[in-house]
Amino acid sequence: MQDRAPRITGIGHAVPPRVVTNDDLAARLDTSDEWIRSRSGIGTRHHVDPGTATSDLAAEAGALALKHDMRSGGTGHVDLVVLATTTPDRTCPGTAPLVATRLGMGGIPAFDVNAVCSGFLYGLQTATAMVAGGAAGSVLLVAADTFSTIVDPDDRRTAFLFGDGAGAVVLRAGTEPTVHAIDLGSDGTQEDLIITPGGGSRSPGSDERWFAMQGQAVYRQAVDRMTRSTRGVLERVGWGVDEVDRFVGHQANSRILEAVAQRLGLPVERVVMNLDRVGNTAAASIPIALSDAHDRGLLVGGQKLALAAFGGGATWGAAALTWPDLPRA
């Protein structure tokens, strides 16, 4: 139905105040600022302090998106909350109901989605389908992760990559869509590429609590899957690569983003990057990058955007959007 077209009407993001620099990591690990920047493009990241949880960042980002929604003519209230996260406050229950309650919307449906770094795109598909199908007139989609709580701080291979943060968007039913198409995929045979081995029903008593990743294999798969998924979603909406004004990929590694842009034939200056300041914030990275780019004036109403991500599972996805004309703070 034409009046059920999902539109983005609000956006916001939040990162914890504590900044961790490459030099901070080099003071206790066998690494250096030059080594980290050359391999990832990351200069700083934000980490939560003890006592701060994923729900705290999620609620903060959600509140900002709802406030932005009101400035865009919305009500600041939604029918559904979807939270994409790999680091919930607890294994049970889900974290989304707590976030909804903290935002003053207790009683509405709320649930978690776990697709690791592809979580925002999986959540976006869920939210847009709910709006387009009439199950919800409005959805708050939050993606939040605190990977500093599951990454071994003494692991030189992973400790420098991750930051904590949350990003959120409000989607409402309208007459003209801003989200045009989403492509998703998964491959469970590659679950070991990105994994936290212990804590689940497979190994409940395991001491393997820390996140692990096969870096080179992840790089190859991420470049391949993000490229193919982006091409697929552009074909579905009939856009040529030259029509894409901004490419916003999962902010995992600058080399991955540059390689995807090169394979697509997209000029690197159209690639949105903020990982140099926030690191890899997992599911939160795309909405944080979108919110940051909007705040900096890099996104303008009417621009054609392509989004893409690769995450544990393995999971991947891409989306084609027309950026809405949203007010700035």
Tell me briefly what this model is.
The protein has 329 residues and is an alpha/beta fold.
Please provide a written account of the structure.
- With 329 residues, this protein is an alpha/beta fold.
- It folds into two domains: 2-177, Thiolase/Chalcone synthase (Peroxisomal Thiolase, Chain A, domain 1, 3-Layer(aba) Sandwich), CATH 3.40.47.10; 180-322, Peroxisomal Thiolase, Chain A, domain 1.
- 31% of the residues lie in helices and 23% in strands.
- The protein has helices spanning 22-26, 33-40, 54-71, 96-102, 119-133, 215-237, 254-264, 275-278, 285-295, and strands at 5-14, 19-21, 44-46, 80-84, 110-113, 138-146, 164-174, 179-186, 194-195, 212-213, 246-249, 304-311, 315-322.
- Strands 1-7-6-4-5 form a five-stranded mixed β-sheet, sandwiched between helices.
- Helix 6 packs across helix 7 (254-264).
- The model has no long low-confidence stretch (mean pLDDT 95).
Q: How many extended strands?
A: 13
**Tally of alpha and pi helices:** 9
* CATH homologous superfamily designation of the largest domain: Thiolase/Chalcone synthase
Widest sheet: strand order? Answer: 1-7-6-4-5
CATH class of the largest domain: Alpha Beta
Which series of helices and strands comes N to C?
EEHHEHEHEHEEEEEHEHHHEE
Largest sheet: 5 strands, mixed
The CATH architecture of the largest domain comes to: 3-Layer(aba) Sandwich
Mean pLDDT: 95
Low-confidence stretches: none
Supply the helix-strand structural class: alpha/beta
